[in-house]
Amino acid sequence: MLIIPAIDLIEGRCVRLREGRLSSEEVYSKEPVAVAELWELKGAKRLHIVDLDGAFEGRPQNLEVVKRIAKSIKIPIQFGGGVRNLKTIEEVLDCGVEYVILGTIAISRPEFVKRAVKKFGKRIMVSIDASNLTVRVRGWEKKTRKTAPILAKEMERLGVENIIFTDIKRDGTLRGPNISQIKKMLKVVNTPLIVSGGISSLEDIKKLKPLEKKGLFGVIVGKALYTGRIDLEKAITLAGN
C-alpha cells in the first residue's frame, strides 16, 4: 500500500483546504519544489499534485511549478486539476508527469475519457470526489446526481485502470478516513483504488492496511504530514512500502 504525499497548489504556493473550500486556505510553503524534495527524501515513491487554480478555472494554471518539481525529483508524479482535453494531457505529460488525473470531465464527457485511455493507457487516472458518496465536480462546487460507486464502474468499463476516491467531507479535516465508504468502493471496483480524505494518524494507516487485500493500492496524505501529525517515514514503514 503506497503512502502518497499531496501537494495542492494555489498561485504557486503549497496549501491545504478544508472540505475543498477556498476560504479555508492554509499556506504551508511558498517553495513547493523544496516540499517535493523533502517527501522524496523521506521515502515517498509517488507524489500527488493538484492544481487547485486549474480545478476552478478549467485549465491548469501551475504547470511551470509542476515542471520544476518534476525536474527536481525522480519519483513519479500524478497530477490533476483542470485537465479537460487531449492537448492539455500532452502538455502535462511533457512537464515530466507520469499520471494525469481526470475529474470533472469523467461526468460531463465520458466518451473523452475513453479516447484518453485509448491514447495514453495506464497513464490516465480518474478522480472521483464525493460527499456522502454523491459525486461533486468543478472544484467540488457542483453536486451531481451520480454516486461514486456507479461512476467507478462506468470508468472501469471505459478502460480506466487507476481510480482515486476522495471523501470531500473528510478532506483536510483530520477526522480520519470513512472506512465504510471506502469498503463500499472496494466492493464495486476491480481496478487499484487510491483513497484520500481525513487521514490523521498512524492509527488510520493501520486501519486501512487490511484493505490492501481487497484492492486498496494507495493512500493520499496531506494535512497530517504538514502539521506533523504523521511522520512520513513511519507511515511508509507501517504501510509496507
Produce the secondary structure layout.
Layout lengths: L1 E9 L2 E6 L2 E9 L2 H10 L5 E5 H6 L5 H10 L4 E4 L5 H9 L4 E4 L1 H5 L1 H11 L3 E8 L2 E4 L4 E6 H10 L5 E5 L11 H10 L4 E4 L5 H7 L7 E6 L1 H4 L5 H8 L2
Helix pairs in contact: 1-3
Task: Record keyword descriptors for this entry.
single chain, 241 residues, alpha/beta, TIM Barrel, 8-stranded parallel barrel, 29% strand
Task: Tell me about this structure.
By secondary structure, this protein is of the alpha/beta class. It has one domain (about 1-240): TIM Barrel. The chain is built from 11 helices and 12 strands. The protein has helices spanning about 30-40, 50-55, 65-70, 85-95, 105-110, 110-120, 150-155, 180-190, 200-210, 225, 230-240; strands at about 1-10, 15-20, 20-30, 45-50, 75-80, 100, 125-130, 135, 140-145, 165, 195, 215-220. Strands 1-4-5-6-7-10-11-12 form an 8-stranded parallel barrel, surrounded by 7 helices. α4 links the parallel β5 (about 75-80) and β6 (about 100). α1 runs parallel beside α3. The protein is globular. The chain starts with a strand and ends with a helix. The model has no long low-confidence stretch (mean pLDDT about 90).
